[in-house]
């Protein structure tokens, strides 16, 4: 019995040591590197997930969008600006860049950016935000604000309030807002 195990281990070791894995082997289907699990990322910084998509902020310079059904990369958005936090809602990706919020709409296999404008002032995003398709809640420094989004215009709802610096914020599908004061 011990001899059988030893012979089997020697066979596996000999076989495994003779297998050469190269980049061409990886590209040819040995590992599906176009799929999310094996896709080469430079330096992933943030990820957002929905039932349909997974978006990855890679190296703070590009957003990669993957289909959760096929696991294939379906779109890329690259910029010279520094990317921050990202969120997904339906076919939209929201992300922070240079203290502004942008919306990427998926059209075919391209992501088209649109800058969101505050109806009254410039939106200052210094911390965290969340989005539910209708409302955006933002925490910047020690101030939290809630905005209603109509098209690309965000209108502040109610008064801003003090909260912990750079605290996490959230809004759910019932338009309930969560934050730490």
Secondary structure topology:
Elements: H1 2-17, H2 23-30, E1 44-49, E2 53-58, E3 62-67, E4 73-78, E5 83-89, E6 92-97, E7 100-107, E8 110-115, E9 117-118, E10 128-131, E11 135-140, E12 143-150, E13 153-156, E14 161-162, E15 170-171, E16 177-178
Parallel strand pairs: 9-13
Antiparallel strand pairs: 1-2, 2-3, 3-4, 5-6, 6-7, 7-8, 10-11, 11-12, 12-13, 12-14, 15-16
Describe the structure.
With 181 residues, the protein is mainly β. 13% of the residues lie in helices and 45% in strands. The protein has helices at 2-17, 23-30, and strands at 44-49, 53-58, 62-67, 73-78, 83-89, 92-97, 100-107, 110-115, 117-118, 128-131, 135-140, 143-150, 153-156, 161-162, 170-171, 177-178. Strand 7 and strand 8 form a beta hairpin. Residues 1-29 have low confidence and may be disordered.
Structural class: mainly beta
Shape: globular
Q: Whole-Å distance between the termini?
A: 67 Å
Give helix % range: 10-25%
**E-strand count:** 16
Total number of helices:
2
Strand content: 35-45%
Secondary-structure element order, N to C:
HHEEEEEEEEEEEEEEEE
Radius of gyration: 22 Å
Average pLDDT level: 76
Uncertain parts: 1-29
Main sheet summary:
6 strands, mixed
Task: Give keywords.
181 residues, mainly beta, 6-stranded mixed β-sheet, 4-stranded antiparallel β-sheet, 2 helices, 45% strand, globular, disordered N terminus
TL;DR of this structure?
The chain is mainly β and 181 residues long. The protein has helices at 2-17, 23-30; strands at residues 44-49, 53-58, 62-67, 73-78, 83-89, 92-97, 100-107, 110-115, 117-118, 128-131, 135-140, 143-150, 153-156, 161-162, 170-171, 177-178. Strands 9, 10, 11, 12, 13 and 14 form a six-stranded mixed β-sheet that branches. A four-stranded antiparallel β-sheet has the order 1-2-3-4, with no helix packed on it.
């Amino acid at each position: 019995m011990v001899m059988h195990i030893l012979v089997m281990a020697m066979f596996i070791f000999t076989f495994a040591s003779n297998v050469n894995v190269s980049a061409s082997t990886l590209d040819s289907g040995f590992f599906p590197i176009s799929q999310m699990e094996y896709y080469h990322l430079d330096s992933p910084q943030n990820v957002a997930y929905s039932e349909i998509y997974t978006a990855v902020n890679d190296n703070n310079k590009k957003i990669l969008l993957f289909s959760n059904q096929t696991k294939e990369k379906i779109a890329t958005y690259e910029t010279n600006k520094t990317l921050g936090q990202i969120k997904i809602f339906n076919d939209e990706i929201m992300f922070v860049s240079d203290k502004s919020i942008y919306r990427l709409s998926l059209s075919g296999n391209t992501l088209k950016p649109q800058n969101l404008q505050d109806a009254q002032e410039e939106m200052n995003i210094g911390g965290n935000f969340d989005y539910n398709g209708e409302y955006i809640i933002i925490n910047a420094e020690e101030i939290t604000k809630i905005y209603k989004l109509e098209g690309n215009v965000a209108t502040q709802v109610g008064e801003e309030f003090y909260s912990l610096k750079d605290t996490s914020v959230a809004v759910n599908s019932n338009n309930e807002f969560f934050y730490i004061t």
